[in-house]
Amino acid sequence: MTLSCGPKRLCFTPLLPIAFIAALLVVSGCAEQQLRTADSDPLEETYQTQEFHAFFWGAVLSPQVAEADCEDGLNDVVVKDSFFHGLASVITLGIWMPSQVEYRCRAPAGDGSAFPEAPAQ
Known about the structure:
Largest sheet: 5 strands, antiparallel
Number of helices: 2
Oligomer: single chain
Order of helices and strands: HEEEEHE
Number of strands: 5
């Protein structure tokens, strides 16, 4: 199959849409929102992850409310939406909208005494 294009014409080949979709997958990004306390003091460096799913344009949520197993409260929360989360929402026309929430627990409050000194060497 030969395509003949004039000097001022845009040639369209069947590979162009495939190349465009491949480029989108390679450079796909994500959105990330973070909420944290002013005196941030996480108990651990790693985040705990919880998956959330909204169905039928947000009418049904799973889970409706998630429980964080933190004795001293939350330190910070990160809500992540990736390219694939958005793609799933678009393909299903909003019937299924996944998202991911990560959180860290707050470290327990100290006893109020002075911070210990490092031992002398």
